């Protein structure tokens, strides 16, 4: 009887996987996925660019890249975490960039998954028949993030978990390292892979295929403003070695075990990304290239004190939802918030590290909070096109104790 149940279960999973790869007119597909260059906060190419100017530049890049009449866009969803007055900023940036006033705009904020939540929101609107075409944008300007926080009442902060959810992210990273015995050496080893892979991808022109250049203002020595085209990431650190990483001091010595450093944690960065989505029917009608099909997005919750291991909760939930297994996935893009969570998630999920962040991740490139979820789609689709794989999974941890993951079928 048990073997019969197992056979039926495997048959159903096989049918489900077949449905994932089938092509139907109502499928939600991606026809464009690009990102801006990612630049060092406060020191990089965007340091003189205000938050609204950077979003405007991202919107202009999107308008110039998507290859359709912008009046056809049914909705724009902007994922952002730190932007002041985000709904108004997003709407104004879209209008200034040349999207007609008939194209509505909304914002979404689920911390570090905001860019992916924008993708998921647009996908769901298309899937539900609300719109045929939508643009998901993710972006954040950490240069001008004032880090302002708001107080909470004693009633809300009466539990340990609510108190934990307000602790700095560095504290949670050290909790992961300490609770699960993740050594500094293993964290640096993963970080070295990220740095070296990103350096190679940049040097060989891989990133050029996913980057949409932007024009931004930069202050000159005489106080004037000059508009400059930015075409490459400026946070990648060429020549990183195991020895150089080992010399970096702990970033959070106040919390044991103190294994996180500026060399093995994500950089503070500015940037944006965008993903154009529509039904397969509409893409074919417009003669647009189909890059991938969106399959599903999931979000999972976990203890806030170890929020970094969110992907270890979200990815299994995604597999359960879709019928996929880890061996079905050709490439993973997992946000490298901290090396401790990366090492844990790879170990816990039993992943092949050669399939994870093959062109480097946030440790090397940076992590503009709202941008990352959309950036991972652009980076992942660019990477999987080169490997010839079929299934891409993106995932990230989320502050306050969550994780998100999404699956895409490559059609390039």
From TrEMBL:
SUPFAM superfamilies: Thiolase-like. Pfam families: Thiolase_C, Thiolase_N. The active site is at 112 (acyl-thioester intermediate), 367 (proton acceptor), 397 (proton acceptor). Transmembrane segments: none annotated. One of its GO terms (molecular function) is acetyl-CoA C-acyltransferase activity. GO terms for biological process: fatty acid beta-oxidation; phenylacetate catabolic process. Signal peptide: none annotated. Residues 28-280 form the Thiolase N-terminal domain. Residues 289-408 form the Thiolase C-terminal domain. It catalyses: an acyl-CoA + acetyl-CoA = a 3-oxoacyl-CoA + CoA. Pathway: Lipid metabolism; fatty acid metabolism. InterPro entries: Thiolase, Thiolase-like, Thiolase-like_sf_Thiolase, Thiolase_acyl_enz_int_AS, Thiolase_C, Thiolase_CS, Thiolase_N. It comes from the Eukaryota. NCBIfam families: AcCoA-C-Actrans. Belongs to the thiolase-like superfamily. Thiolase family. This is Thiolase. It comes from Cutaneotrichosporon oleaginosum.
């Amino acid at each position: 009887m048990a073997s019969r149940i197992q056979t039926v279960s495997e048959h159903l999973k096989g049918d489900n996987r077949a449905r994932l790869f089938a092509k139907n007119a109502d499928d939600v597909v991606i026809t464009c996925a690009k990102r801006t260059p990612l630049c060092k906060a406060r020191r990089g190419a965007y340091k003189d660019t205000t938050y609204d100017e950077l979003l405007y530049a991202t919107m202009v890049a999107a308008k110039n890249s998507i290859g359709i009449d912008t009046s056809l866009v049914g909705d724009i969803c902007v994922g952002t975490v730190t932007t002041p007055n985000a709904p108004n900023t997003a709407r104004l940036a879209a209008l200034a960039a040349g999207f007609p006033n008939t194209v509505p705009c909304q914002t979404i904020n689920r911390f570090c998954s905001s860019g992916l939540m924008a993708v998921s929101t647009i996908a769901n609107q298309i899937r539900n028949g609300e719109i045929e075409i939508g643009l998901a944008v993710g972006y954040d300007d950490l240069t001008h993030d004032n880090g302002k926080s708001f107080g909470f009442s004693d009633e809300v902060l009466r539990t340990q978990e609510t108190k934990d959810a307000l602790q700095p992210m560095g504290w949670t990273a050290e909790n992961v390292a300490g609770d699960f015995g993740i050594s500094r050496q293993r964290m640096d080893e993963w970080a070295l892979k990220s740095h070296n892979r990103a350096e190679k991808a940049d040097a060989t022109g891989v990133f050029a295929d996913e980057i949409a250049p932007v024009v931004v203002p930069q202050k000159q020595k005489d106080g004037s403003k000059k508009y400059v085209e930015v075409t490459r990431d400026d946070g990648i650190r060429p020549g990183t070695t195991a020895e150089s990483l080992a010399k970096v001091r702990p970033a959070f010595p106040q919390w044991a075990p103190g294994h996180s450093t500026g060399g093995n944690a994500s950089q503070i960065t500015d940037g944006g990304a965008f993903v154009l989505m529509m039904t397969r029917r509409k893409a074919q009608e417009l003669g647009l290239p189909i890059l991938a099909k969106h399959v599903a997005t999931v979000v999972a919750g976990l203890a806030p004190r170890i929020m970094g291991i969110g992907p270890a909760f979200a990815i299994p939930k995604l597999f359960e939802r879709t019928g996929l297994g880890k061996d079905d996935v050709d490439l993973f893009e997992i946000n490298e918030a901290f090396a401790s969570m990366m090492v844990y998630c790879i170990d816990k999920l039993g992943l092949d590290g050669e399939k994870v962040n093959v062109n480097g991740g946030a440790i090397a490139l940076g992590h503009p909070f709202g941008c990352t979820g959309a950036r991972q789609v652009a980076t992942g689709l660019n990477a999987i096109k080169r490997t010839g794989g079929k299934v891409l999974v993106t995932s990230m941890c989320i502050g306050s104790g969550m994780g998100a993951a999404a699956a895409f079928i490559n059609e390039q």
